[in-house]
């Protein structure tokens, strides 16, 4: 096994359920990876500002596949981005607000995140955690640009079924459950697997040189793209028809770090 890039999802994968990770252990690993010219990337549905904030002052991570692949940045340089055009996201927003008025709806753009001032989850702790550079507005439709992502969140619903309904109505976008009662809506041809392919091009790698970790449905294409795709032990039930490798331990017991040690550093 000759790995040159490791990519990991964050919540439910790299982080435990309390949004923590073993900083000391990972930094030792990261130093070893750097010395052996192996790249490490975070691949998440979250926005770039949030991802940079949660690792700032802790670990020297400089490569991010953000917004489920809509924005890819390494060492401060954007190497790829894709947006949902305004006319498209407004139509999607009109549909979902009519069909699911009880849900929280947000926009993720280059300038930050946007929520309505009457959004039901505006003061929710998860909102404060996940939404970086938050702008509270009267009407989301006042935003005049394309966006990386629309996000829906609410409790106690079948997000998989609702995502399927959105996809049936709007072929130009892709709605995917992303965990924590959320659905991410992004351009139809964008996903974390495409994000990996852009890093392959940038660093002249092949999929055979990539290891990836994920726990949810928005990780599927990334795990398929990488030759060594690992689903977390805590996420196996979400992939009943896939045949990914499975980590020995779940996200609460450092499953990603354990696999890096076992398969790369100590191999």
From TrEMBL:
UniProt keyword list: Hydrolase
GO cellular component entries: cytosol
Gene Ontology molecular functions: magnesium ion binding; phosphatase activity
Record flagged with keyword Glycosyltransferase: no
Superkingdom of origin organism: Bacteria
NCBIfam families named among the record's database cross-references: HAD-SF-IIB
Name assigned to this protein: HAD superfamily hydrolase
Lineage: Bacteria, Bacillati, Bacillota, Bacilli, Lactobacillales
């Amino acid at each position: 096994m000759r790995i040159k890039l490791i990519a990991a999802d964050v919540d439910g994968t790299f982080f435990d359920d309390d949004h923590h990770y073993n900083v000391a252990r990972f930094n030792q690993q990261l130093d070893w990876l750097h010395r052996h010219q192996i790249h490490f990337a975070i691949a998440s549905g979250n926005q770039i500002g949030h991802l940079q904030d949660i690792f700032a002052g802790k670990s020297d991570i400089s490569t991010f596949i953000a917004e489920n692949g809509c924005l890819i940045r390494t060492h401060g340089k954007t190497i790829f981005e894709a947006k949902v055009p305004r006319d498209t996201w407004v139509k999607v927003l009109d549909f979902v607000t009519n069909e699911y008025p009880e849900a929280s709806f947000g926009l993720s753009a280059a300038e930050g995140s946007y929520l309505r001032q009457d959004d039901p989850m505006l003061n929710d702790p998860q909102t404060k955690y996940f939404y970086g550079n938050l702008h509270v507005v009267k009407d989301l439709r006042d935003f005049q640009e394309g966006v990386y992502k629309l996000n829906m969140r609410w409790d106690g619903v079948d997000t998989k079924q609702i995502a399927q309904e959105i996809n049936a109505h709007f072929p130009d976008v892709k709605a995917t459950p992303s965990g924590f009662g959320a659905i991410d809506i992004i351009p139809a041809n964008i996903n974390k697997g495409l994000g990996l392919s852009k890093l392959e091009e940038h660093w002249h790698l092949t999929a055979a040189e990539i290891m990836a970790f994920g726990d949810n449905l928005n990780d599927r294409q990334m795990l398929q793209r990488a030759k060594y795709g690992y689903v977390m032990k805590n996420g196996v039930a979400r992939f009943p028809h896939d045949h990914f490798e499975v980590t020995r331990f779940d996200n609460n017991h450092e499953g990603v770090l354990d696999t890096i040690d076992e398969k790369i550093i100590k191999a």
